[in-house]
Specification:
CATH topology: Recoverin, domain 1
Strand order of the largest sheet: 1-2
Number of domains: 1
Shape: globular
CATH architecture: Orthogonal Bundle
Structural class: mainly alpha
Order of helices and strands: HHEHHEHH
Strand content: under 5%
Number of helices: 6
CATH class: Mainly Alpha
Radius of gyration: 14 Å
Distance between the termini: 48 Å
CATH superfamily: EF-hand
Largest sheet: 2 strands, antiparallel
């Protein structure tokens, strides 16, 4: 029971921090720039340390539990890293499906902004 309650509290707190993070990034172009800046090993994805650094750099530092919750939310293929596509899907609110014109246009603007 306590574990379930703790998960809900951490999840809600993390969601609030991630919402603040989204609002601080602004445009798709800014999202791509920040992602590239934090991808220090240039492998096209963020590991947990890089994601933690991104959040902290935007004023939303995450503790260990919050970081685990954020990774679980963003890492859609569950490989332990967040690709730009996964990050952008999270940023855009998953309002689009891959292949939809709106997603493709917005994603391409972000992808080639830099």
């Amino acid at each position: 029971m306590f574990m379930g309650f703790t998960s809900v509290v951490v999840g809600r707190h993390t969601a609030s921090k991630l919402t603040d993070l989204k609002h601080s990034m602004g445009s798709a172009k800014a999202v791509k720039a920040k992602f590239n800046e934090m991808d220090v090993d240039n492998n096209g994805s963020l590991d947990s340390k890089e994601l933690a650094n991104l959040c902290a750099s935007l004023g939303s530092p995450l503790d260990h539990n919050e970081l685990c919750a954020a990774l679980d939310l963003m890492d859609r293929d569950k490989n332990g890293n967040v690709s730009f596509e996964e990050f952008f899907e999270w940023f855009s609110g998953w309002n689009f499906e891959k292949g939809d014109a709106g997603f493709d246009d917005t994603y391409n603007q972000a992808q080639f902004a830099i």
